[in-house]
Amino acid sequence: MNKLSDRSIAAFRTRLLAWYARHKRAMPWRGTRDAYRVWVSEIMLQQTRVAAVEPYYRRFVQKFPTARALARARSEEVLKLWAGLGYYSRARNLHRAAREIVAKHGAQFPREVDAALALPGVGRYTAAAVLSIAYGEPLAVVDGNVARVVARLDAVRGDLRAAGRWKKLEERAQELMQRRESGE
Fold first, then answer.
1. Can you give the residue range of the structural domain that contains 173?
2. Same domain, 127 and 154
3. In sequence order, what DSSP letters do the residues of the chain get, joined into one string?
4. Are 42 and 21 within one domain?
5. Which pLDDT tens digit goes with each residue over 108-134?
6. Can 184 be counted among the known catalytic residues?
7. Cβ atoms 147, 168 nearer than 8 A
8. 0.70 exceeded by pTM
9. Is the pLDDT reported for residue 181 higher than 60?
């Protein structure tokens, strides 16, 4: 891949971050580095529109402000607050994961990728999102939008989800993150 020079990538990054600063939407989970709240928002946002998530998120973290509070809850309570968001396996996994976080991680979302990935319902995207947002880990969070941007930067054509192509896009996004961290 690597079709653009480091200088071009740096200029693109600057423009992209400036655009984001001007146009980002205000959301109740933005601006927090609380790993629990970041994690809850990421799970709720899976396959759900942002506008639909906002009131659910507010009610959920008001009722369950910590992993410990969520872990103590009865399943029925969790599912009742989740009702209407759909994909109820996300709520059940969130609840199970909260119990593991309390039992195995001192009630704190784990800081290591492998430990995060071992939690029920946490995949690469969610682990990277929580660790990067809450703990400042330089991990690329790759969804369809990010994959399309990376593909355009490197002139990648075709189905981005084709065998091996998504993995290469993730690796390239991570490489771009590492370059940024090293000051290149």
1. 6-25+140-181
2. no
3. ---S-HHHHHHHHHHHHHHHHHHPPP-TTTT---HHHHHHHHHHHTTS-HHHHHHHHHHHHHH--SHHHHHHS-HHHHHHHHTTS--HHHHHHHHHHHHHHHHHHTTS--SSHHHHHTSTT--HHHHHHHHHHHH--------HHHHHHHHHHTT--S-TTSTTHHHHHHHHHHHHHHHHHTT-
4. no
5. 999 999 999 999 999 999 999 999 999
6. no
7. no
8. yes
9. no
Are 131 and 113 in contact, with CB atoms under 8 Å apart?
yes
Report if residue 1 sits inside a domain.
Answer: no
Per the residue annotation, which of 42, 112, 170, 184 is the catalytic one? 42
Looking at the structure of the chain, the number of domains it has is: 2
Domain CATH for 53: 1.10.340.30
Exposure of 46 in the CB half-sphere (CA atoms within 13 A): 22
